[in-house]
Amino acid sequence: MIRLIALTPAGKQLAERLQAEWPEANHFEVRVDYKPKPFAEFVQTAFKNADWLVFICATGIVMRTLAPVLQDKYQDPPVLVLDEEGKFVIPLLSGHEGGANEWGAHVARSLGAQLVMTTAKPYLNPIYTLGMGCERNCPLEFLESLMLDALAQKGLTPKQIHSLNSIDIKADETNLIALAAKYQWKFNTYSAQELAPMESFLSTKSDYIFNTVGVYGVAESAALLAAQEIMDDEPELVLAKIKNAKATCALARGFSG
After folding, report:
1. Candidates 3.40.50.11220, 2.60.40.10, 3.40.630.30, 3.40.1710.10; correct CATH number of 2-115?
2. What's an example GO BP annotation here (predicted)?
């Protein structure tokens, strides 16, 4: 769930404007919470429930309220802070790992606001790549549903994906080709030798996959290599491999600035 938390009438008006622009955003329910009471208990519960939070209030209030429930950047949900006029968007928590930086950039664009980045590297222009592996003749519905689940987990839309990528033995996989065509993505495939240097970036390594195709993970390796080729820089795994009965999927990214 995305919660838009406002403490003033002007903030409530901005929250309702954002809510109208995000109807069921990427499978998330979007809710406006105006002056919730008791405030600290409400906010801390929402945070522990992993709700994505947008606060339209002073940054200090947010930090003092959330401080007792903070864990780490890998577990905490993304948190944004906006001023009530909608002029500034601050990714406050989980900016990098949790996705608040790119989410904040999206919110800033939708409002015509200024994104205020406080992390060490300005992740203003992320480029996302999708990696997939599958059984031979995998039905399109297995591929598409898994892909949409992956994107929803990171708050992304298909339009934000640069390319669909796999191993070269899947170059003729009918429904990988069909999936790329449906969403107007470039479809790239790579040899096991080309994918091998991505091994150090993988979240897990499968000996079974290695013995079958020559790499320790198809989806993650392909996504990572595509991201590296786009930026000619070290890639980053955004979503570790997820799978269903017939396919695997992972997301990587590089940055243009």
Report:
1. 3.40.50.11220
2. cobalamin biosynthetic process
d(CA 44, CA 52): 12
Q: Which of 182, 189, 110 is nearest to 148 (CA)?
A: 182
Asked if residue 56 lies in contact with residue 84, where contact means CB atoms within 8 angstroms, the answer is yes
pLDDT of residue 194: 94
* The two structure tokens encoding residue 29: 């329910």
Task: For CATH 3.30.420.180, list the domain ranges present in the chain.
Answer: 126-255
Identify the residue whose tokens are 């591929």.
143
Which architecture does CATH list for 126-255? 2-Layer Sandwich (3.30)
pLDDT band at 73; cut points 50, 70, 90: low
Phi-psi region of 4 (alpha: psi -120 to 50; beta: other; left: phi over 0): beta
pLDDT number for residue 23 = 59
Task: pLDDT band for 239, please (50, 70, 90 cuts).
Answer: very high
pTM of the model: 0.56
For 72, 78, 135, the CA distances from 75, given in Å and listed in that order, are 6, 9, 32
